[in-house]
Amino acid sequence: MYLVSKIEDTVRIPPDRFEEPLEEVTIELLNDSYVGAIDKKLGLMVTVKEIEDIGIGKVIMGDGAAYHDVTFTALSFKPELHEIVEGEVIEITEFGAFIRIGPMDGLVHVSQVTDDYINYDGKRGALLGKESKKTLEEGDKVRARVVALSLKGKSSKETKIGLTMRQPGLGRFEWIEEEKNKKAKKKTTKEGKK
Amino acid sequence: MASRKKLTRFEKARVIGARALQLSMGAKPQVEASASSDAIDIAILELKENKLPLDVNRIKK
Questions:
Q1: Smallest Cα–Cα separation from B55: which of A91, A148, A61, B3?
Q2: pTM exceeds 0.80 for this model
C-alpha cells in the first residue's frame, strides 16, 4: 500500500547553494537523503511530494550552512501482511518466481505457486504445473497475497517479501479468468437441471 | 538589518565569523570585492555597507 505522510525535519542548505531557489534546493536535498531509505512505520520512501512549510534559516556554531525546519509530504510504499498485490514476474528461478510489486520485489516460492506439483524448466526459464499444464514465465502478470515480511534492512535490497498464489482468486490473470469461467459454467448447468 | 540596534562587539564578531565561513564555503559576496581580499575582509566590508544577509536573534531574558 502506498502512503502519503507529513514529515517534519531540518534540512541543511550549504552556502554555495544560497543563490538557488530555496524550495527547489530543499526538495533536492530531501530527496537525496530520503529516497530509498526504509522506515519502520512508513516503509520504503519513494519521493518527496510537496513542501508545505519552510522556516527561516538558522546559522549554528562552527558551520556556515543554513538550517531550515521544513514540513513536507512524502510518498512511501509499505507492503502489509495479508495485502493483495498485483505485479509482473521479473525472474524465474528453480526455487520460485520474483514478482515486482511497485518499488519492491516479492518472492513466490515454488510450493506457493499452485496446488499442483511444479517443475522448473531451466531452458525456458518457466515453472510448469505437472497435471494442470499451468505455466509461469517472465513477464506474466499475477495477483498474489503477502504472507511474510521482513523490512529489517536499510535498503530495498535487504527486504524480503514472501508471497503466495495458492488461494482462490490468486495466480496468473489467465488462471483466475479460467477459474471464473468454470464456475460460471457449473452454475448454468446446475440451473439447467432444475 | 537596516533598522536594527547597533550590534555589540560580541555580536559583530559572531556575525563576521559566520559570514566569513559562509563566504569561504562558497556563498556569493553581497559587495564588490577585489580578488585578493580574504573571506573575513569581505565579511567586514559587508557589515560596514549594511549588506550582511544575517540577522541577530537576541534571546530575551
A1: B3
A2: no
pLDDT at B2: 43
Contact A76, A42 (CB under 8 A): yes
- CATH 3.30.470.20 assigned to domain B9-48? The reply is no
Tell me which chain A residue has its CA closest to the CA of residue B22.
Answer: A64
Quote the CA–CA distance of A162 and A115 in Å, as a whole number. Answer: 17
Looking at chain A, which runs of residues are DSSP E strands?
A: 2-13, 38-39, 43-54, 58-59, 66-77, 84-93, 96-101, 104-109, 118-121, 126-129, 135-137, 141-150, 160-164, 171-172
Cross-chain residue pair B18–A64, CB shorter than 8 Å: yes
Can you give the residue ranges of every domain in chain B?
9-48
Sort out which chain B residues have CB atoms less than 8 A from A64's CB and list them.
Answer: 18-19, 21-25, 27
Percentage above 70 pLDDT, chain A:
95
**ipTM here:** 0.78
Distance CA B27, CA A13 (A): 11
Residues of B with CB under 8 A from a CB of A: 18-19, 21-28, 53-54, 57
Binned at pLDDT 50, 70 and 90, residue A121 comes out as confident
